[in-house]
Amino acid sequence: MSKRLLRSTHVKSKIFHDRLATGPSFQDFIQSNINGKTPLESPVPARLPNWLRTRSIPDSDNYKRIRRDLRGLGLHTVCEEARCPNISECWGGSSKSSATATIMLMGDVCTRGCRFCSVKTSNTPPPLNPKEPVNTAQAIARWGLGYIVLTSVDRDDLKDGGAAHFAETIIEVKKRSPNILIEALTGDFGGQLNSVATVVMSGLDVFAHNLETVEALTPHVRDRRATFRQSLRVLEYAKICRPNLITKTSFMLGIGETEEEIKAALEELRKINVDIVTFGQYMRPTKKHMKVYEYVHPDTFEKYKKMAENMGFMYIASGPLVRSSYKAGELFIENVLRKNQQKSMQKEFLN
């Protein structure tokens, strides 16, 4: 046996023994004491807790109209693709102005493979539909909504990551619905900041990009091409391009994060002046996806909400069933725009 092969075998053996030494012991498994060690199995209970029981799909006019138009125009929504538990609340809406839909642009096939996401993946997705920007704008104009969320699959196969297509859609929507508020929930465009600028300068009202999880877990949760620091740069650059633009991000909880890691992530976000943050429970879409490590209690969601409030975030949505675009119109319109309206009224009164 050669010296090189012996050295390689020795290194591999040492790595295995090191991992074994830092993992849970047999006694740890008996006592369920694996804090600070690499968990080999999730301690999550088999049954869903009561606070994660979801409501049935409604039969409201808003819901029917949105679904019918989406099918007719060949549009996709992340609400359906990601099996969101809040589709009844968001699509149903107490009124047209408070109903929210999240349209997924650039098809329903993503070039990335994050371990939490149920969207289809491929390195060679179908080409972009040139009619999609206009079709999307026409559908939104018919719905009469006050707020719309536009998101997309990742398109690493495109030179600009699809930024121009995204921006064109925003422009077409604003052209037909000038009073509507648009949130763009984008990917990281492979770190291309010029693509971020293309979307940011297209006339949107809120720029959102999700961190998804804490820095330590990012390599295990997101596609290898997505990094925690790259996502921070995307959010930071959006503010550099438009300092008064509302920026937003979201976290999934229940995948092994700690309170200290959440706090550290929030501190990083405040450094770059991110305005809105949401927290929701990770739910495993299928058995092919990563397991749920923990069903986080509502009290913990409330704790993180207060933590973020104390740090100065403009708005926080935090709860087991909250998703990144959860009732976005209601949250933004009622809690952010009203504050801005009050400031304007105060200025007029003083003048």
Could you characterize the architecture of this molecule?
With 351 residues, this protein is α/β, with parallel strands linked by helices. It has one domain: Alpha-Beta Barrel (TIM Barrel). It has 13 helices and ten strands. Strands 1-2-5-6-7-8-9-10 form an eight-stranded mixed sheet, sandwiched between helices. A two-stranded parallel sheet has the order 3-4. Helix 3 runs antiparallel to helix 6 (132-143), helix 7 (163-176) runs parallel beside helix 8 (193-200) and helix 11 (259-271) packs parallel to helix 12 (298-311). It is globular, with a radius of gyration of 22 Å. The relative contact order is 0.11.
What's the order of the H and E elements?
Answer: HHHEHHEEEHEHEHEHHEHEHEH
Helix content: 40-55%
Number of strands: 10
Percent of sequence in beta strands: 5-15%
Number of helices: 13
Class by alpha and beta content: alpha/beta
What does the overall shape look like? globular
The CATH H-level superfamily is Aldolase class I
CATH class categorisation: Alpha Beta
Low-confidence stretches: 25-34, 36-40
User: Nearest-angstrom radius of gyration?
Assistant: 22 Å
Average predicted confidence as pLDDT: 80
* Main beta sheet strand tally, sense and closure: 8 strands, mixed
* Multimerization status: single chain
Short overview:
One of its GO terms (cellular component) is mitochondrion. This protein is α/β, with parallel strands linked by helices and 351 residues long.
